[in-house]
Specification:
The protein has 168 residues and is an alpha/beta fold. It contains 5 helices and 5 strands, in the order βββαβαβααα.
Length: 168
């Protein structure tokens, strides 16, 4: 299975493409961050992000796309941008024909680090360990996106057994 994880954000949208290996384990295919300039008008930034997501999906052609579920944040302005970016990622993934799943931050942390209260540094280190990456993944949005892909790989066998009626 080939999964693209998306850590949505309007200024920085992380992506991590991870492929499962026969017999277990996974390997990173692409990890990075899509950026839009904070000084540009929001509609322009959304259009740019949508275009970049569309290009990324067309290039990688993942089987599934895992997006971080948006929760309320203390900074409403940031939360709105994250929600807008998340909506774009969900819609573009669906339009590209990929299976789409959403995971909460706690689900991702539990799947990758073993507990839902893990810190960002701990998650980043575990992502690098699981994928055999020597260099730190910066900014952290890239590591978070790869963690989303790993989370989906961990949940995919259970979801397949439950059938299409059940979504994460």
């Amino acid at each position: 299975m080939f999964v693209l994880g998306i850590d949505p954000g309007l200024s920085r949208c992380g992506y991590g493409a991870v492929e499962s290996r026969p017999g277990g384990g996974a390997r990173a295919v692409a990890v990075g961050v899509l950026r839009t300039p904070p000084s540009a008008p929001v509609p322009e930034r959304l259009a740019e992000l949508q275009h970049e997501l569309r290009v990324l999906l067309a290039e990688l052609r993942p089987d599934a796309v895992a997006v971080e579920r948006v929760f309320f944040q203390s900074n409403v302005r940031t939360a709105i941008g994250v929600a807008q970016a998340s909506g774009l990622a969900l819609a573009e993934a669906y339009a590209a024909g990929a299976a789409v799943a959403e995971y909460s931050p706690n689900q991702v942390k539990e799947a990758v680090a073993g507990w839902g209260g893990a810190g960002k540094d701990e998650v980043e280190r575990m992502v690098r360990t699981l994928l055999g990456i020597d260099q730190p993944l910066r900014p952290v949005d890239a590591a978070d996106a790869a963690a989303l892909a790993l989370c989906h790989l961990a949940h995919a066998p259970r979801l397949a057994r439950l059938g299409p009626a059940v979504a994460p």
